[in-house]
């Protein structure tokens, strides 16, 4: 049973550089069982479309306001209709990418790339006019969700969870928040690229 939990945290703009916070901006559409839903209208208990687990329930939703500008991924930047529309993400949000061409460079076909490290490629750019109101949702396990038609990692932010205003949480997250935190820390199936490795992605894609 979902509980609509509202906190009274002040809307202070935070510096979130290098905090590994993978968030989406207000207005982003999340693919769910009931169709695409704007992130600010998502609720605990909604089942989101994930790559690994199909439909998986949202346990917790939070929001913060950042000093950092969002990174804009233009419609079609990652492929035909990917994303389906312009998409705005927090700088440390990681895009899921897959290709045989990654095998030699990263010994993995699936990689998670910080969107900030793709700025300058295919029109991806920092957007000073974009919203810096960011949202994060948490499921039982690390989740590569479909947002605006692009695949983005959603994972527990660890101790940085306290930076968020909690908007909604289900009974499990309210009673046992440590269980969600434990399950969200790792994703053994994908290579998370660091800054230097991410810089190679563009070259690898060009050679493919």
Describe the structure.
A hairpin with a 2-residue loop joins strand 15 (143-147) and strand 16 (150-154). The chain has 208 residues and is an alpha+beta fold. It is built from four helices and 18 strands. It has helices at 102-106, 171-175, 177-184, 195-207; strands at 2-3, 13-14, 24-25, 29-32, 35-38, 47-50, 54-57, 60-66, 71-73, 87-89, 94-98, 110-114, 125-126, 133-138, 143-147, 150-154, 165-170, 191-192. Strands 1, 2, 3, 8, 14 and 17 form a six-stranded mixed sheet that branches. The longest helix is centred in the C-terminal third of the chain and has 13 residues, at 195-207.
Write the layout of secondary structure elements.
Elements: E1 2-3, E2 13-14, E3 24-25, E4 29-32, E5 35-38, E6 47-50, E7 54-57, E8 60-66, E9 71-73, E10 87-89, E11 94-98, H1 102-106, E12 110-114, E13 125-126, E14 133-138, E15 143-147, E16 150-154, E17 165-170, H2 171-175, H3 177-184, E18 191-192, H4 195-207
Parallel strand pairs: 2-8, 12-18
Antiparallel strand pairs: 1-17, 3-14, 4-5, 6-7, 8-14, 8-17, 9-10, 9-13, 11-12, 15-16
Topology as a string of helices (H) and strands (E): EEEEEEEEEEEHEEEEEEHHEH
Secondary structure category: alpha+beta
Radius of gyration: 16 Å
Mean pLDDT: 87
Principal-axes shape call: globular
Question: Residue share in helices?
Answer: 10-25%
Count of distinct strands: 18
Task: Report on the biggest sheet.
Answer: 6 strands, mixed
Tally of DSSP helical segments: 4
What gap, in angstroms, lies between the N and C termini? 48 Å
**Poorly predicted segments:** 1-10
- Percent of sequence in beta strands: 25-35%
């Amino acid at each position: 049973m979902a509980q609509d939990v509202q906190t009274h945290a002040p809307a202070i703009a935070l510096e979130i550089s290098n905090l590994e916070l993978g968030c989406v901006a207000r207005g982003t559409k999340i693919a769910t069982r009931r169709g695409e839903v704007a992130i600010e209208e998502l609720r605990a208990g909604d089942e989101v479309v994930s790559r690994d687990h199909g439909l998986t329930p949202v346990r917790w939703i939070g929001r913060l306001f950042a000093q950092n500008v969002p990174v804009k991924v233009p419609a079609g930047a990652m492929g035909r209709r990917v994303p389906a529309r312009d998409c705005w993400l927090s700088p440390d949000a990681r895009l899921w990418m897959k290709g045989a061409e990654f095998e030699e460079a990263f010994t993995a076909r699936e990689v998670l790339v910080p969107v900030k490290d793709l700025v300058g490629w295919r029109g991806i750019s920092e957007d000073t006019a974009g919203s810096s109101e960011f949202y994060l949702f948490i499921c039982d396990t690390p989740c590569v969700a479909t947002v605006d038609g692009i695949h983005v990692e959603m994972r527990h932010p660890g101790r940085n969870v306290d930076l968020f205003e909690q908007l909604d949480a289900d009974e499990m997250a309210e009673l046992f928040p440590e269980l969600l935190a434990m399950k969200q820390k790792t994703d053994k199936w994908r290579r998370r690229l660091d800054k230097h490795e991410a810089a190679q992605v563009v070259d690898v894609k060009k050679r493919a």
